[in-house]
Each structure stands twice: as C-alpha cells, then as structure tokens.
C-alpha cells in the first residue's frame, strides 16, 4: 500500500539526526543553495539557527533579533527535514507571542505551520496534554477550567464550611497563596510548614487538600493545575513520558528567563532524556531582562541551563539593532553591577551623527518633573517628532497621575499601556463616586456604585427596592434612602445599615463648605471603611491601590474646592482615547518589556522608589538585582534618546519626603551619560544638598528658592505636620519641613540639610548603633559622605542622611 505523500517542507520519510536522507534530498532539491530565509542573519544569529543538534542556550540581548532567530530556527528545522511540524514543541508566554510566531513561520515555510499543534503557551499546551490523559489524575477529558472569580468563590465556601471567619481569613488571600505554591510546583503535601501555619490558624494545608479534592469532585482545575497535573502524570507514568520524548524531536522555549519553578519542572521532564538519546532543546532568553520575580519567575532557571544540560552550547546575541552606542554603553555599564548573570555586552555597528548621551535631569518635586518632561516632549514635537515614538516609563503606577494631569493641561494626547488610566482605576472610580455624591446628591450612578462598597449587607434586593422607591416618587436614590429607612419596606438589618450610610453622608455634606476638601476626602475614605477595605485585602494589587488613593488625595491639593477638582477630572476622563491618535505612551517599566521607542523618559529614579524599597526589604540582594535589571530594561527601550529624571522631594504614602538620587545613577558611566543643564526652575540638587554624587552638577542649591516648587512648598508649609493621609499628627517622621526659607538650606524635621553636606566626613562610624524617629534602632553598615546605609531592626536596610539619626 502506497504511503501518503507528506508536505514538501517535511519530505517523505522519517526525519533523522542531522537531517538524514530527507535533509540531503532537500539540499539536492535546492541545488545546494542556501535558503533565502538565512539571508541577512549576522554570524551569531546564523549559528543559533543552524546549531540544531544538542542543547542550545541562546542569550539574546535587548534588540538583537531574538524573535527572528527563534522563528527562523523552526523554519530551518522544517525545511531541512529534521522533523515534521507535529514533532516540534514551541513554547511561548502569551497568546499574542504565539500568534506572532506562527505568522512569522508561515511567511518562511507556508502552510506547514498549520501542522504545528504543539506551538503555544505553557497553559494552552498543558490543556492539550491534560485533555488527553485526564483520567490519570482523576478527571474526565471534558473538565472545566475555573477562572479567578470561580476559584475565590469556591475557596470562600470551603472557609465557611470549616467554620472560619472569611473576613479574618479572606478567600482572595488564600487563592493567591495557592497560586504561589503551584507556581513553585508545590502540592498540599509539599508546602513548607511555616506556609501551612500562616493561614487560618494553621489550617492552610488542610484547606489546600480540601480545595484540590473539591476541584476533583467538580471535574475542574485551575490554571496552576494545567502544569501541575501534567507534571504529576509524567512522574507517575514513565512509559508515557518516554512516548512524548519520542514525539517531540525538537523543543524550543521563548523568554526562558521568565519561567517559574513549575514551568521549569515541566520542561525538564520533557527535555531531559536518557543517556544516548538526543536532547534537542533550545531555550532563548536574556537573564538581564528577568524582571518578573514578584510573580514567580526564577532567574536561576536560565543561569543553571548548562548544569541541567551538560555539554550545552551557549550562543550570545550581542549585536544590537535598536539603540545608539551611548544608550547601549550606559545600559551595559549599569547591568554589569549585577553578580547573578551569565554576562554579555551589547554593541552596535550603527554610526549615528546625532547620537546623544543619556541625559540625567533633576527637578524640585514631581509636579515640576511632569512639567519639565511635558515641555521636553513639546519641544520634540515642534521638531517634527511623533508622539507615538515617545514613552514615559514609571516604576510605580501612582506616578502616572501627575503626567496625565499635565498632558491634559497641555493638550498633549497620551495613552496608558498595560492598564487603565489613573482616573479609570477601580479604586479611583470608587473614591470619586463618594466625592461626586457629596457634591451632587442626585448622582444616582455614584450612589449605586458605592452603596455596598465596602460590603454593608446592602445587596441587589435592597438596591432594587431603593431604585423602585425613587422612581415611583421621582426623587434621587440618596433621598429615597433617607425616606425608606422610616418605613418597613426593608428588613431590619438592611434598614440599620442604610441608616448608618445616610448619617455619614449627612455629616460629610455639612462639612463640605467649611472643611478643606483634601481633609474631607481623607475623612470620607477613612470613615466609610474604604481605606480599611484595601488595607485588609491581602492581594498583590492592594498596596498599589492604597498608593493610588493617596496620590488621588494629593492631586486635589491644586484645586480650591471639591467641585473644582471633580470638574477637572471630568475633563481628564473626556480626553480622547482613540488608539489611532498620535500619542505619548505612559506605562510601568514592567509593561514596557519587548517594546521600543525613539525617545524614552524614565522619571522617579530615587532611593525607595527605584530601587523600590519593598523589593529590597523582601528580597535583599536578589531584589536589588531584579530592580537593576528593570532599570536596564527601561534604558534599552530607547532607540535614540533616553532621559532619566529624579526629584528632590516626592510625596510617597501620603508623606512629603526628601529623596536621595537612586544608587543606579552612580552606576552609569561618565562616557555615555550627561547631566542636563538645568534651567533655574529645575534647581534643587546642587552642592548645598547632597554634594558628593557626580550628578550634583545642576544649579547651586540656593537657586532653588526662587522655583515654583519652593513657592508651593512655602504656601503649603502645614504639610510638615501631616500624617500618612495628610491629616495633622504629632508623629515625627522624615519629611520636608517648610519653616525656614532662603539660601541657608532646607529644613527636614528641623535640621538644615546644608549643615550636613556630603563633602564633610560623617560623625558616625561603621557598626554604630543608631536611632531614627521613623525607622527605630539599627546598625550602620555603610557610609558615603553624609549618607548612611543602616540595617534597621524592623524596617530593613535603608539609606538616610546622618542628620536624622542619633547614637543609641
């Protein structure tokens, strides 16, 4: 019986090691001519494409043509007859990346790509494997995949069934814990004892077991199971694993530096073969761009590749096609300070007569930072540069608000990438609904949004009753609520809850005309329980939401009244969001990975913000190195111009704080970096302030006293006695004090910075035990002029000026 002909790209016959008969036949077919798809590859890229036997690690730096290498390598495998399309396992991280890879391969080899069922994301391939072998883990092939909401709802039922308080032990928190465990490849029996005891009075492990049992009963799994179940199947069924070893002749993995432990375990099972069997695994990645540790990524996975696959060939792609020599030089010098890396240095063959150095700028505060960047963008726009070619990359999402407001004022189009605009965020919309209802009691949309936020036991039934009551009498819902509590139309519990809400709104409305609107806004969020709702939320997003709420309060300071602020926000929200507009992109550094722009602005390079204090506190040196990789990613997004900004003062967590320039600034090379000449209004980091940093070449510090920022500071000098939400407090914390003015120096908690310049030796020595009013007791571990690095007993490692501590 004749064998069915195979597509030309895969040739008849079984592909063999090195290509075998099929490969030689294809070469003869093409007359020995090199395929067109290899044209234009540089020597390193060609080596990565043509090295098809044995384990290969392609270290692909930013802008070095990683995607082209990966897709061309797959095309080359197919075109040389080394494997059929169904024998290639190609794994990516996102559906978008998988689609783009498939499209690029199709351009190179045509319809053969349609025969690649194993090209996709970790989860999509996991689903295929699990559908085929579901019975081996107690499921049927038609199992359901639960989304996040379903998982939280299921866990809440389990918590309540155990007689636990689901407010004290939130289901959302435990869902996050389970997700973290599964990312680490840990089942209920494997989790550390400390983790098991951390939830529900030591019942974490039991709840995890109960959760998995319930999933099995429901014939369901969550996203973590899409990897965990295949791992379990392969471990318990070695013959089945061997079958897949035979099926997958080539394995390719994109963005290997972003794999978590479970993904790593899954890949190792499929890629590591018995002695003598081919291990044709190729992982492509960049250890210098591993920036997702906070969601489980393990940079060690790529660092240990050669240990996992002895004899592996490492090919470095260092020729950059994106950025200028100065940008690459700055990025390379910065990332070289990391110890945990395999090592590579980006370079470019391009010569650009307009090549400018990376620019470092200083401003007084974040408002002037936004204004200065806005003016720089306008100047570029006047020079015929497109806004689409510019981006602002921030470390924390709360930084975006200042730029959004500024661009609305300037009439500059902008878009927020990777998330909603500031005023469109859930927590901001909730807070604004409270404020709108105070200013305009007839705003029924605002009423419906917040009446049960946070939860007050006023569900859909109560809201429908209020809606019907209001419509029947043609009155606003807030007025209807005030009337209905005098009747018996609601159940006693709902009536009591509604009564409390009405009393609060009456009190806030009485305060509207005579209380500073920022103070009233703080009071509303506190008394309504909205702030506490997020403080008690244990999800990864909660700290960012609290930061955004504090930034919202700060944004109100520029307006004379609540109504004026609400009008401003309406204008911001009405700003054009047409994706086809020429617009500046604003996004976090994490969202910027893989993107590129002619001009990149990197604001907020200050200690505590970048590197972020939370990363340092939670992960120590590993956290610092990931922050440095994030800085590297930011710089290498720029093709032609890169501007780095830092400020003297920034309001963080509701406090005006004097800030130190980021340590990353002094890790940049003099040869590729230039301190921008500051106009007088941007003064603030001269020698009267922090002295020793080489970036203190801006205007003398005394000149900053004529800046708009200083004048604003004088006008708001009461901020020196405000607590985390800006309300008056007796707590002494590190912040700007505006009690003195003039060229003598700024006051910080009553101390003149000018009295303690970094040009003078510190009065402290290494190992001194000191006390700080905000951070408590600690030991000095580093001294740089008047800057001290202190390991605090409770607050962890921080850098502070020596004027703020005293020996114990």
List the helices and strands and how they pair.
Blueprint: H1 20-29, H2 43-50, E1 56-60, H3 66-79, E2 88-92, H4 95-109, E3 119-121, H5 122-133, E4 144-145, H6 148-161, H7 171-183, H8 193-197, H9 204-217, E5 220-221, H10 225-236, H11 238-247, E6 250-253, H12 261-271, E7 281-285, H13 300-303, H14 305-308, E8 313-317, H15 325-335, E9 358-365, H16 366-382, E10 390-394, H17 400-410, E11 414-416, H18 426-439, H19 444-450, H20 460-473, H21 477-484, H22 492-511, H23 517-527, H24 530-535, H25 542-555, H26 562-573, E12 584-588, E13 597-602, H27 613-635, E14 638-652, E15 655-658, E16 673-675, H28 708-715, E17 736-737, E18 747-748, E19 751-752, E20 769-772, E21 776-784, E22 787-792, E23 796-801, E24 805-807
Parallel strand pairs: 1-7, 1-8, 2-3, 2-6, 4-5, 6-7, 9-14, 9-16, 10-12, 10-13, 11-12, 13-14
Antiparallel strand pairs: 14-15, 17-18, 18-19, 20-21, 20-24, 21-22, 22-23
Task: Pick out its properties.
single chain, 808 residues, alpha/beta, Arc Repressor Mutant, subunit A, Rossmann fold, disordered N terminus, nucleotide-binding, helicase, DNA-binding
Task: Provide a descriptive summary of the structure in words.
There is one protein chain. The chain has 28 helices and 24 strands. With 808 residues, the protein is α/β, with parallel strands linked by helices. The protein has five domains: 184 residues, 3-Layer(aba) Sandwich (Rossmann fold); 75 residues, Arc Repressor Mutant, subunit A (Orthogonal Bundle), CATH 1.10.10; 230 residues, P-loop containing nucleotide triphosphate hydrolases (Rossmann fold); 147 residues, PCRA, domain 4; 39 residues, no CATH class. Strands 9, 10, 11, 12, 13, 14, 15 and 16 form an eight-stranded mixed β-sheet that branches. Strands 3-2-6-7-1-8 form a six-stranded parallel β-sheet, with helices on both faces. Strands 23-22-21-20-24 form a five-stranded antiparallel β-sheet. It is globular and about 85 Å long. Its EC number is 5.6.2.4.
């Amino acid at each position: 019986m004749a064998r069915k002909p195979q597509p030309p790209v895969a040739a008849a016959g079984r592909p063999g090691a090195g290509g075998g008969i099929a490969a030689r036949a294809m070469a003869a077919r093409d007359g020995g001519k090199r395929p067109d798809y290899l044209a234009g590859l540089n020597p390193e890229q060609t080596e990565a494409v043509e090295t098809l036997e044995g384990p290969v690690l392609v270290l692909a730096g930013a802008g070095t043509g990683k995607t082209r290498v990966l897709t061309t390598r797959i095309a080359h495998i197919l075109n040389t007859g080394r494997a059929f399309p169904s024998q290639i396992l190609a794994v990516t991280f996102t559906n978008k990346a998988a689609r783009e890879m498939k499209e690029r391969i199709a351009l190179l080899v045509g319809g053969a790509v349609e025969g690649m069922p194993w090209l996709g994301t970790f989860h999509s391939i996991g689903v295929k494997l699990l559908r085929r072998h579901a019975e081996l883990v107690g499921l049927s092939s038609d199992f359901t995949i639960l989304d996040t909401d379903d998982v939280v709802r299921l866990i809440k039922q389990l918590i309540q069934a155990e007689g636990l308080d689901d407010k004290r032990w939130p289901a959302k928190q435990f869902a996050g814990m389970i997700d973290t465990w599964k990312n680490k490849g840990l089942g209920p029996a494997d989790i550390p004892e400390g983790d098991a005891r951390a939830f529900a009075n030591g019942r974490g492990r039991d709840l995890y077991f109960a959760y998995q049992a319930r999933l099995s009963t429901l014939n369901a799994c969550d996203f973590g199971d899409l990897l965990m179940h295949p791992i379990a199947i392969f471990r318990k069924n070695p013959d089945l694993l061997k079958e897949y070893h035979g099926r997958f002749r080539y394995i390719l993995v994109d963005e290997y530096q972003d794999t978590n432990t479970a993904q790593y375990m899954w890949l190792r099972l499929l890629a590591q073969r018995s002695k003598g069997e081919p291990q044709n695994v190729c992982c492509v990645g960049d250890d210098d761009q591993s920036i997702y540790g906070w969601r489980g990524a393990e940079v060690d996975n790529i660092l240990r590749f050669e240990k996992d696959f002895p004899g592996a060939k490492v090919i470095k792609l260092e020729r950059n096609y994106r950025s200028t020599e100065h940008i690459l030089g700055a990025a390379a010098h910065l990332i070289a300070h990391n110890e945990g890396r395999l090592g590579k240095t980006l370079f470019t063959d391009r010569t650009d007569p307009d090549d400018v150095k990376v620019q470092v700028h200083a401003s007084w505060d974040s408002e002037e930072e936004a204004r200065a960047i806005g003016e720089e963008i306008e100047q570029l726009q006047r020079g015929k540069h497109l806004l689409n070619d510019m981006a602002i990359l921030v470390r924390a999402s709360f930084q975006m608000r200042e730029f959004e407001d500024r661009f609305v004022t300037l009439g500059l189009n902008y878009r927020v990438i990777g998330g909603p605009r500031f005023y469109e965020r859930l927590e901001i919309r909730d807070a604004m609904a409270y404020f709108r209802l105070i200013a305009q009691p007839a705003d029924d949309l605002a009423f419906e949004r917040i009446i049960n936020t946070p939860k007050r036991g006023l569900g859909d039934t109560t809201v429908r009753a209020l809606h019907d009551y209001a419509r029947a009498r043609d009155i606003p819902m807030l007025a209807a609520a005030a009337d209905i509590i005098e009747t018996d139309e609601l159940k006693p519990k709902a009536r009591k809850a509604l009564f409390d809400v009405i009393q609060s709104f009456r009190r806030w409305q009485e305060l509207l005309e005579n209380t500073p609107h920022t103070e009233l806004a703080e009071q509303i969020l506190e008394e309504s329980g909205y702030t506490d709702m997020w403080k008690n939320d244990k999800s990864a997003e909660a700290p960012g939401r609290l930061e955004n709420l504090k930034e919202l309060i700060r944004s109100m300071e520029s307006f004379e009244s609540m109504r004026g602020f609400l009008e401003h926000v309406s204008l911001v929200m009405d700003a054009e969001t047409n994706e086809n507009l020429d617009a500046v992109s604003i996004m976090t550094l994490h969202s910027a990975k893989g993107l590129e722009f002619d001009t990149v602005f990197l604001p907020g390079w200050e200690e505590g913000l970048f590197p972020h204090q939370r990363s340092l506190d939670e992960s120590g040196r590993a956290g610092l190195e990931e922050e440095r990789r994030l800085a590297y990613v930011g710089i290498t997004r720029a093709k032609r111009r890169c501007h780095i900004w830092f400020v003297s003062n920034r309001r963080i967590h509701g406090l005006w704080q004097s800030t130190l320039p980021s340590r990353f600034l002094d890790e940049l090379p003099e040869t590729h970096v230039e301190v921008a000449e500051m106009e007088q209004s941007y003064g603030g980091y001269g020698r009267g302030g922090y002295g020793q940093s080489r970036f203190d070449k801006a205007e003398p510090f005394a000149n900053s006293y004529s800046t708009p920022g200083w004048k604003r500071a004088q006008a708001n000098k009461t901020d020196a006695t405000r607590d985390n939400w800006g309300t008056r407090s007796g707590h002494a914390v590190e912040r700007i004090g505006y009690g003195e003015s003039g060229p003598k120096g700024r006051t910080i908690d009553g101390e003149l910075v000018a009295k303690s310049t970094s040009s003078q030796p510190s009065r402290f020595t290494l190992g001194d035990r000191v006390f700080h009013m905000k951070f408590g007791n600690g030991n000095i571990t580093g001294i740089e002029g008047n800057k001290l690095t202190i390991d605090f007993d409770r607050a962890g490692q921080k850098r502070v000026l020596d004027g703020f501590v005293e020996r114990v």
